[in-house]
Amino acid sequence: MISQDLRTEHFRQSMRRVASTVCVISCRHDGCRYGITVTSVTPLSFAPISILACVNRNSSISVPLKEEGRYCINVLRASQADISHSFSGGRPAERRFDIGEWSEKDGIPYLQSAQANLFCQMDQVVSYATHDIIIGQVAAVAFAPDVDPLIYQNGAYALTSPMALKKAC
Ligand SMILES: Cc1cc2nc3c(=O)[nH]c(=O)nc-3n(C[C@H](O)[C@H](O)[C@H](O)COP(=O)(O)O)c2cc1C
């Protein structure tokens, strides 16, 4: 029987092998902007158009996000590792919006230069252990013409490159 610590470490090592696109969740509440870096974003359904993200209840955005209910999921591009770093603790919460081209739509802060912006209305919150699974309906989107995501894998940032597929005969 392996110890809980070892099981946790094995889980961590397994998850290092999962590549995920880096996003920043942002919202405004009581006149202040909040944002954190997340990779836990998953499209959920087309009817209604919905998306989920898992947010640690200890994070600075947790309470304002749930109280406000309106937020943006900003899908970062490959050149935005500095923004990811800033929103994952590299800068204090009140200075995170100092880098990047942040704008506002209907009171929701969003990163203009992101690959995509998904403006969401929170629909359900499912609490599990340390995290909330935030389910949102997508009210509006904006996206850039290019596809150039910032990837996080093996504890580091990475880039994608298309595979040259062999043509079937
Ligand atoms: C690449 C990356 C992905 C992350 N994904 C998540 C996530 O999905 N959910 C989450 O709650 N925290 C995630 N984090 C951690 C938060 O970004 C980090 O704890 C942040 O500092 C929390 O904000 P706070 O310091 O304002 O509380 C991630 C961090 C990194 C670097």
Automatic annotation (TrEMBL):
Q: Which UniProt keywords apply?
A: Oxidoreductase
What InterPro entries does this protein's entry cite?
Flavin_Rdtase-like_dom, NADH-dep_flavin_reductase, Split_barrel_FMN-bd
Annotated GO MF terms: FMN binding; riboflavin reductase (NADPH) activity
Q: Which SMART domains match?
A: Flavin_Reduct (SM00903)
Q: Is Oxidoreductase given among the entry's keywords?
A: yes
Where's the Flavin reductase like domain?
Answer: 15-159
The record's annotation in PANTHER family points to:
FLAVIN REDUCTASE (PTHR30466), FMN REDUCTASE (NADH) RUTF (PTHR30466:SF1)
Q: What protein name applies here?
A: Flavin reductase
Native species: Rhizobium loti
